[in-house]
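Hey,
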Amino acid sequence: MMTTEELAAIIARAASAALLRIGRIYQEQGLFHHALTPYLKIVACYPESQEAPVAVDGLMAIAGAFEGKRHFHTAMSVYDRMERAARFHRWNGHQLTPEGDIL
């Protein structure tokens, strides 16, 4: 029989893989604003996954694309959201904001 931890790990792997696929599809279609959400969710919720570095690469590419179009404010917003997603973590089963407030 599968333990709760094993089942949670399987679900996390499937979720992070699905989010990465969604992000890549949006990015390939040039829908950069839509690609941000799945990539950021991977960074925030699945930082230890094998998809996390790929999601960060995707986010950096999106920010770079905005910089290339001279949309510096939007690029900075992407970098800011990446930082906040990286600081997001869970505490005793509760979600915490980057400031440490329990959600």
